[in-house]
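Pipeline run #58 for the internal structure catalog. This entry was flagged by the ingest filter as a single-chain record with no existing model, so it goes straight to prediction. Upstream metadata was stripped on purpose; only the residue string is passed forward. Reviewer on rotation: M.T. Logging verbosity set to normal.
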Amino acid sequence: MRLKVCGMKYQDNIEQVAALQPDYLGFIFHEKSKRHFGENDMPQIPHSIKKTGVFVDTELHEVIEKINFYHLHAAQLHGHESPEYCEKLKAYNIEIIKAFSVDDSFNFDDLKPYEPVCDYFLFDTKGKLPGGNGYTFDWTILNKYPSTKPFFLSGGIGLKEVDSILLFLEKPESKYCYAIDVNSKFEIEAGLKDIEILKEFKNKLCHFE
């Protein structure tokens, strides 16, 4: 099971998290976020880790600027970006991760137009914010998932959720679960990750494999 650590902000902390070798590191380029990466310097990160820019209804040219400046490998789109927007971005040879806020009434038919233009979906908890609401959604609704598109599981996942994740990964609805996405439950403060807790979480996931 792949791991994405999102909401990275501070250079030393980025280097410490990168040393744990997650598969993805997420950098939020949304000014309203407490974890906004801004114009910070990005340290050298191992090539095995995919640098992911997180955007919310950002003008396409701004996303492209960030891709080129930071040499991003993936763009995670958390707003109301259209399939046409995703298709234009895909031309820049990066992975497209389209995020959807999920609750019990989520309509999985909404995914269909995005199938040809995205590499992955990401399912986060529906709340007041575009992402990072800090609590999980009911994963059993993913038994309605009609697609074969691999997805990231996100939303309020922390060390206490390990047992629930391991149970989920044994169920049919996890068949296309590609990665676990974590953020706020591993923080000392917004954007600053607790390395020891992250290490413990990653080791438990690896033990499952």
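catalog note: The longest helix spans residues 195-208.
catalog note: The chain has one domain: 2-208.
status: ready for reviewer M.T.
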